[in-house]
Amino acid sequence: MAGQIITVFIVIVLLLTVASLMGQYYKFFGGRDRDLVRLFDLDGEWNIPTAYQGFSLLICSLLIASIGIVKQRVADEFYLHWIVLSVMFFGMAVDEIVQIHEQLNQPLRLVLNAKGALHYAWVIPGSGCVIALGLFYRRFILGLGGRTRRLFIASGILYVLGAIGVEMIGGGYVDRGGNQTFTYALITNCEELLEMVGILVFMYALMSYIAQNMGEVRIRFFTR
């Protein structure tokens, strides 16, 4: 079941990526920036890819919360880690929609005199948060089963590589000459694709973990 669901998400990610790349090619080489181009731009705001990414992060948050609730009932020592992780993913989903972290760039750039790869200055506190989370979740990760641990680590690497690594490459490019080029569009599309793939790997890991350790989990929204 997990494989079938993830296959659907993979198809969606591929379609969104192709649509975005075609739109950017049309924008820079066709000389037109239509509403349809912005609607499918992976680096855009308030469009279809943004809605998809927010939705996928929300699904992860709900899956993690369901695991955390079960872990709390059996007094698992790491149940609080699951709950905190669920809250973080919910926050990431909200941020994906309203772009909170983007608002930090200008003030941080001025305060820290950030240039080059640090043009998008939010990556500075962002990197610190990644390190802190890695230390906080070290025992939690080591306590997972081998396959789940590998998938968790792989998903984290993919997501951080896109969100921070490629973001820094894009920042350096913008600092040298601006962001209105097809090359920059390719950089941002690569960034967003890595993030989406990282989320998919994590979602698959969560679904597999639930299937192997807890069986079927149902989320009830209404009761009679």
Task: Explain this structure.
By secondary structure, the protein is mostly helical. The chain has one domain (2-213). The protein is built from 9 helices and no strands. Helix 8 (146-177) runs antiparallel to helix 9. It is globular, with a radius of gyration of 19 Å. The model has no long low-confidence stretch (mean pLDDT 90).
Put the structure in a nutshell.
The protein is an all-alpha fold and 224 residues long. It has helices at 2-29, 35-39, 48-73, 79-98, 105-112, 123-136, 138-142, 146-177, 182-213.
List descriptors:
single chain, 224 residues, mainly alpha
How do the helices and strands line up, and which of them pair or pack?
Layout: H1 2-29, H2 35-39, H3 48-73, H4 79-98, H5 105-112, H6 123-136, H7 138-142, H8 146-177, H9 182-213
Helix pairs in contact: 1-9, 3-4, 3-9, 6-8, 8-9
Query: pLDDT under 50 segments (min length 5)?
Result: none
Radius of gyration: 19 Å
Largest sheet: none
Structural class: mainly alpha
Distance, first to last CA: 28 Å
Helix content: over 70%
Mean pLDDT: 90
Determine the strand fraction and express it as a percent band. Answer: under 5%
Sketch the topology as an H/E string, one letter per element: HHHHHHHHH
Shape: globular
Query: How many helices?
Result: 9
Multimeric organization: single chain
DSSP strand tally: 0
Number of domains: 1
